[in-house]
Design goal:
26% strand, disordered N terminus, L-arginine/glycine Amidinotransferase, Chain A, disordered C terminus, 9 helices, single chain, four-stranded mixed beta sheet
Amino acid sequence: MLDARELGLDPHAPDGRTHYASRAGADHEAVVGMKPSRQPGRSGRGGQLPLVLAWALLLPAAVAGNGYLVGRRDLPVNTSPPPSGPVHCVADYEPVSGLLIAWKDEPQLHGVLAQLVGQVTTVGEADAWIVVEDAARQPFRLSLSQAAGAQTNRVRFLVCPLDSPWMRDFGPRYIWEGDCRAVVRFTYDWGQKNDDAFSRFFAGRMQHALYELPLRHNGGNFQVSTRGDAHLTRLLTLANPGLTEMELGRFLDDYLGVEVTFHPLSYADPSGHLDMWMLLCDERTVMINYWPFDPGSVADRVCEAAAGTMAARGYVVHRLPARSHAWYENHTYANAVICNQLVLIPSFSHPAVAPLNAEALATWCRAMPRATVVPIDCEALVVRGGFLHCLVAPIPRPRGGSIRPSFSRPVAVARCCGPAPTRRSAGSPTMTSG
């Protein structure tokens, strides 16, 4: 396994912002991957502890969880047989019919989500599927969306209880099985029951086939290209103790039809998610952070290593500035939404970060010259630990007629950052390390 030591880093040493703890034992009761706003920060139904108090309560658990906030392992891991036909895992940049959005009663979300809905339903030419806890909440959200210019005939509401706004993490992961859309569901590794049940609910609502992937996982830590190469951080190995990277790669190949590359944890934010510092925006283009104010930090070296790996594999790598004031105050422009020919990117009003907005916008425009790139102020979400990509899950656009898969379904391969192995049609799974 490639870890911080293989990059010449000491995971126990400070990088100027925080200290990082060692990996918890396999018998630890918790799993990693929590965003700061999730359940331990809540105080009764609908209330929240003050942010400082919530962090004070959580930090001892973080020390036991490899430097990442941890949550209870409450929910059972379900399983079902994998898809049997040709499988293609849908990439973020493929055509979508709509985006799923969990619009919770949280004031800091209202302005961001209203702008998102306004852009998606007009420039993005897609439906906004807004999930609310009851029908009484619909008029307020519709009025905010209208004020942001939304095309209201493209706004749809679903009534379903949810625990958090992070739709990317717990929402449906779509595949194409032949000509048909299908959902692959994983157990949401934070253990929030309403969130964990949502993919099953939505697949039934849409009458899409459902496959239960027997892993604890969350969608923010997954990037896939139309060529079938998938990228994750080693958060997945921490969330599934007892399974090797080879075994994890085999599961992901069986259910999603992908070859897996595991990247080291960046220690830049408590989620451990890849989408906080890297985003694939077409089959040959990738956005990766760089850290102009934190040279030599763990995050900086992890991103540099990933940029080198992706360039060696033929990707055009565009670098986005990022800045972190504290472990839970991470400003990143990589956490963006691609919706057909629309790209929504974060911008920030923090005086130390706002000067980076223009550079980030120009970089996105160079990377996606045919798209309309629109910044949305996400400063209010910084302490929540997630931005635009975290808030939505894509629904692929239906397509008719026979299709030819865009890649040959390979034998399961899990690999570390390094040269891509040659695809093979038969034989035992292999792993390469770099």
